[in-house]
Amino acid sequence: MTNEGFSEWFALTSSSVATNAPDAPAAVQLCRADKSLVQYAKGKSSMVFYFYAARSARDALTKMFADEIDAPGTKGQGALAFRVLPGDDAARAHLERLFEEFEQRFGSAPILHE
């Protein structure tokens, strides 16, 4: 695990999700795979989406990003990558803090939340 307990980054592909996303609760972050930056109101970041999967990060990624897994770039942000922080309440609370900090720092939610 790296960076505040999150895993390393993995490509958002069917095999990578099956191998690296836990079939358990987890906080999940997604960014542009090439780490290119999105222009937000107050700065730039490669982060594009945050969510908490209460039951299975694997199932949630597979359902929420089926189009992106089948055809990278479908959501208009190029190929995506994900990382996970397994856990229940502490992982959810940590992700909520990161989301709030993102909104304060960049002036909006990550672009795929719009």
Radius of gyration: 13 Å
What's the pLDDT, averaged over the residues? 95
Order of helices and strands: EHEEEEHHEH
Q: Measure the end-to-end span.
A: 29 Å
Structural write-up:
The protein is an alpha+beta fold and 114 residues long. The chain has one domain. 33% of the residues lie in helices and 25% in strands. The chain has helices spanning 14-20, 57-64, 66-70, 89-106, and strands at 10-11, 26-32, 38-40, 43-45, 47-53, 80-86. The strands form two sheets. A four-stranded antiparallel beta sheet has the order 1-6-2-5, sandwiched between helices. A two-stranded antiparallel ribbon has the order 3-4. β3 (38-40) and β4 (43-45) form a beta hairpin. The relative contact order is 0.26.
Name some characteristics of this structure.
114 residues, alpha+beta, two-stranded antiparallel ribbon, 4 helices, globular
Task: Set down the secondary structure blueprint.
Layout lengths: L9 E2 L2 H7 L5 E7 L5 E3 L2 E3 L1 E7 L3 H8 L1 H5 L9 E7 L2 H18 L8
Antiparallel strand pairs: 1-6, 2-5, 2-6, 3-4
